[in-house]
Design a protein that fits this description.
seven-stranded mixed sheet; 16% strand; alpha/beta; 9 helices
C-alpha cells in the first residue's frame, strides 16, 4: 500500500526553507530557498527532525536529502548564527573561538548523527554542492548528482577551512591528493570528476533524477534492515581500523549475530540454504 504524507517543517513560524515528506518508507528533505539554497537554522532544524524520525521509526527505511533549483546548496548562511548554542554577546569577545565552536556544534552533531543512524542516508544533489553542502554530503552513505552538478569547498579562499567534515571526511572518501585539490587549492570538481574520485556513486539524467534516486532507495528497502544497519557500521569501522586481523575478527562476530536473526532464518529457508526445507506455497 502506498502512503504519502507531509510533515510540518521544524523551526516554527515564518519563512520555511525546507520541507519534509515521506512516501513508502522513504523520508525526504527538500531544501527550497531562493537562489542559493543556503543552509539556515530552519534547514538545520528540519534535518534534525528528519534524523530523529528516521532513527525512531522502524517503518522509515531511508532518508533522501535533495534541493530545488540550480544549487543543491551553496553552503551555510553566514548572515545568521550558524548554530543553536549562541553565547552571551557581552562576553563573546573574551573567548570568540570557544563560543563559535559551541554554536557550530549543532552542525557537527548532526553529521555525526547521520553516520550513527543504522539506516541509509542519501544525498541527491540536483545542482551544485558547495561548502557546507559537501560537509553534509560526505557524512551520508550514498551520493548521487546530475551532470550539471559541481562540488567545492571554497572556504580556503576566505582564509578558513571547511571545519565540519569538509576536510577530514572529504579526504577519507577521496584520498589526500583530491582532498588537497579541493580543500587546500579550493578547486571545483565536475560531476564526472566527482564520480571518478568516489565523491559520488552515480550520475543520473536531470530529467529522471529523483525517479532514479528513489528506484535505488526502493532496492535498499528490500534488504533486511538488521543486515543493512550492521553493514553501514562495519564499513565505517573498517575504514578506520588498519589492523587486518581485527577486521577479520569483527567480520566473524558480526556474521555470527546476523545468522541468528529472524530475517536471515526466514530468507535462507525460503531459498533452501543450509539444508532448511523450502516452505510450501
Amino acid at each position: 500500500m502506498t502512503a504519502t504524507s507531509d510533515h510540518q517543517p521544524a523551526g516554527g513560524a515564518g519563512e520555511q526553507h525546507a520541507r519534509l515528506t515521506e512516501h513508502d518508507g522513504i523520508l525526504t528533505v527538500t531544501i527550497d530557498r531562493p537562489k542559493l539554497n543556503l543552509i539556515s537554522a530552519q534547514v538545520t532544524s528540519t534535518l534534525w527532525h528528519a534524523a530523529n524520525l528516521l532513527s525512531d521509526r522502524d517503518d522509515l527505511r531511508c532518508l533522501v536529502i535533495t534541493g530545488v533549483g540550480r544549487y543543491f546548496t551553496a553552503g551555510v548562511d553566514l548572515s545568521e548564527p550558524v548554530g543553536n548554542r549562541q553565547g552571551n554577546p557581552e562576553t563573546e569577545h573574551l573567548h570568540p573561538g570557544w563560543n563559535m565552536r559551541r554554536n557550530y556544534r549543532s552542525h557537527h552533531a548532526l553529521y555525526d548523527e547521520f553516520e550513527a543512524i543504522e539506516k541509509p542516508i542519501i544525498i541527491a544533489a540536483q545542482g551544485s554542492c558547495l561548502g557546507g553542502g559537501v560537509e553534509m554530503a560526505v557524512s551520508c552513505d550514498f551520493r548521487f548528482c546530475t551532470p550539471q552538478a559541481e562540488f567545492a569547498v571554497p572556504e580556503i579562499h576566505i582564509g578558513v577551512l571547511a571545519g565540519s567534515g569538509g576536510t577530514s571526511r572529504l579526504t577519507r572518501i577521496v584520498g589526500p591528493a583530491w582532498g588537497k585539490w579541493m580543500a587546500m587549492a579550493g578547486r571545483k570538481v565536475t560531476a564526472e570528476q566527482a564520480l571518478r574520485i568516489g565523491l559520488v556513486h552515480d550520475i543520473f539524467p536531470a530529467e529522471t533524477f529523483l525517479e532514479d534516486v528513489y528506484a535505488f532507495c526502493r532496492e535498499l528497502t528490500t534488504i533486511p534492515a538488521e543486515a543493512l544497519g550492521v553493514a553501514k557500521l562495519a564499513v565505517d569501522m573498517y575504514a578506520d581500523i588498519s589492523d587486518r586481523t581485527a577486521q577479520r575478527h569483527l567480520d566473524r562476530l558480526l556474521v555470527t549475530n546476523l545468522l541468528n536473526t529472524p530475517e536471515f532464518k526466514e530468507r535462507s529457508a525460503r531459498l533452501g540454504f543450509g539444508g532448511a526445507k523450502k516452505p510450501k506455497g
